[in-house]
Amino acid sequence: MLDLGRTFLQSVERNPGALAVVDGEQRLTYAQWYDRIQRVAEGLATLGLGRGDHLMIVLQNRIEMATLHWACQFLGVIATPLNWRAKPDEVDYCATDSQAKAVVVEPVSAQAVAGSTVAARLTRIAVGGLEGTVQYEQLLEHAPAAPILAACGEDVSLMLYTSGTTGKPKGVPRRHRAERAAALGHVAQNLYRRGERTLGVMPLYHTMGVRSLLAMALVDGAFVCVPKFDCAAAFRSIEAERVTCLYLVPTLYHDMLAWREKNGADIASVRKLGFAGAPMQDGLLKRLDETFRPELFVNHYGSSEVFTFAYDQDATRKAGSAGRAGINTRIRVVALDAERPDQLVAPGEEGQIICELAGDEAFEAYWNRPDADAKSIRQGWYFTGDTGYVDRDGDLFVSGRVDDMIISGGENISPVDIESVLSLHPAVDEVAVAGLADERWGQRVVAFVKTRVGIDAEELNEYVKHSDLLNFKRPREYVFVREIPKSPVGKILRRKLVAGEYEALEQQGHTQ
């Protein structure tokens, strides 16, 4: 299989004058960007980085970030991006774990990198006017004597660090061949055409951002950088660059809809919507479909380890459905406590979702984490930690995380089912459900609600009573909050709700 450097060259050779990347006033064609990427690769090589070395990149979604990612693919260096909001101890851990040879930093991440004793010993490449041992512009000074094309399909392209909601983050090394297969699958599953333009707002330290970057190169498309998510900037880019496809987490869609309702925006160019990272509640799904009227609306379910588990190209067809297995993968649902991949559950029965690692998109093992391998990899299958079920039509529904499952009075209760029902109430803006300790029931179901307009617990309780939600799943308490706590990429942080880390509003919240 082609490595990613040669993959980029395909677009350079097919369509050198096509627009490839935009960042504010900077607009580069494939031929222009290739020249810049080659210069950066040469600059990195001059600093002593070569095949198999890790380059730690702590940048926002700016053109330098995307250029460095591609330069690593030509040079055989392992791109190792970190969240630009990372703390010094996280930088320390990841720099040590990856044995990074250099770190790229900008003003927004400078304090964290400066506070890391490990990063302080590395060659520091500075972007955006920040003082450093090497200025990014110095990497551009010399073109290589001959084109740099040092990687092969078996080399490691990228190492993403998982969010590490519990314990230390885990490094997920991914080979060129797996990254290319994932990008090809993404193109096919989202029906991308030649010349698509996407909003490059999902961070390039996250698998969704990387997938958007690679997918555009496969179709001679354009990656429109939005360094830090901001609704106004996102809509300006959509209108100015005639963005055709969006691939975002539900939270960003939610925020964009709220902003547009107040300010308006031209979205006529957007033909395709895709979402991943978290289930989309029914209310938001309906509002997006009514607003964008997309020709394609894809629910994509995957992870850093195996990019695609399943997808549904008609997200509104059956609300909540993640569809069927991706074109490069095989999936199963096994018992929640299963130790083997052959312990399948019956249709309609909730269990843990697993995916075969023989698939083209899959990683092989975590970086230096045999403990994590032992927990998640069994007999050639990856145990995702996600719960779900397959209905009688064969469609997969993702109901949450094994760790999020609420056990109340001996019954297993998925938060997602309850959230979907409550999200359809017109007064509810966002909702998250968690299990809080209860002396009688073990855990009681509590709904944390952010509202659009005033409403009390009794009104919501009556609404739920008249829904198709089974009575034992009904919330026993409603807590009205100013915001639902989320991760930087929009995942609900239920552990913060359980720990009481939220701002409650003074509204009636108890019910029975």
From TrEMBL:
Cited InterPro entries: AMP-bd_C (IPR025110), AMP-bd_C_sf (IPR045851), AMP-binding_CS (IPR020845), AMP-dep_synth/lig_dom (IPR000873), ANL_N_sf (IPR042099)
Domain of life: Bacteria
Keyword Ligase among record annotations: yes
Stored SUPFAM superfamilies: Acetyl-CoA synthetase-like
Domain AMP-binding enzyme C-terminal: 418-491
Residues covered by the AMP-dependent synthetase/ligase domain: 10-367
Pfam families: AMP-binding, AMP-binding_C
Keywords: Ligase
PANTHER family: ACYL-COA SYNTHETASE, MEDIUM-CHAIN ACYL-COA LIGASE ACSF2, MITOCHONDRIAL
Similarity section: Belongs to the ATP-dependent AMP-binding enzyme family.
Protein name per its UniProtKB record: AMP-binding protein
Organism: Telluria mixta
Species lineage: Bacteria, Pseudomonadati, Pseudomonadota, Betaproteobacteria, Burkholderiales
